[in-house]
Amino acid sequence: MANTAIYNMGGQEVGTIELADSVFAAELKPHLVHLAVVQHLAALRQGTQKAKTRGEVSGGGRKPWRQKGTGHARQGSTRAPQWTHGGVVFAPTPRSYKIKMNPKEKRAALKSVFTDKLQSGNLIVLDQLSFNEIKTKNMANVLKNLKADKAYVVIVGNDQNVVLSARNLPEMKLSSTGTLSIYDMLKYDKLVLTQDAVKAIEEVYA
Q1: CATH 3.40.1370.10 intervals, the chain
Q2: What is the pLDDT of residues 104-135, one digit of tens each?
């Protein structure tokens, strides 16, 4: 099993922790990580774009001129796509952009990201993360001590003092173990896990 250091909120090393190889030393599968990112970005699209085809535009029921003898090209409607105020060719309609990804593939993608963060030295384990009061400066100081200016922080539960102290920091994102985001794990340079979060992750993904 891989070992990594445990730090306190002051940035001091206070021990080591053994990480499960099945989660933090898994086989890297970049294609599944890519699929997870594409799925995340696709899910953000509203899919509400709509334009009218020639059959949906009002008017244009009468033939603008007779078929032959005018010198003009033949026309059947003033709402054909080549006319001003006409319909749109192959007009977009509301649709869902969601991409399906199997749970097994998501697990493999998450393990790949955990493994890559550990191997690249961008995984930090905290002994605990808790505050006595809601203060943004407290969270900012913790990240400064850990030298994690741009970090994705994962905790267990929903500690309001921690959540509210972190929400105004633009260069970090706080998440619980139940709402892990592969996209955000890749977006931020450092992955910070509390010791309890490591145990919870290993219980689910090992």
Answers
A1: 2-45+99-205
A2: 999 999 999 999 999 999 999 999 999 999 99
| Cβ–Cβ < 8 Å for 194, 154 | yes
Cβ neighbours of residue 19 closer than 8 Å, sequence gap 6 or more: 1, 2, 3, 4, 25, 118, 198, 202
The pLDDT tens digits of the residues spanning 43-97 come to 999 999 999 999 999 998 899 999 999 999 999 999 999 999 999 999 999 999 9
Burial class (CB in 10 A: 0-12, 13-18, 19+), 176: middle
Fold of 2-45+99-205: Ribosomal Protein L4; Chain: A; (3.40.1370)
Report the alpha-carbon distance of residue 184 to residue 151 in Å, rounded.
Answer: 9
pTM (two decimals) = 0.82
The helix/strand/coil state of 188 is coil
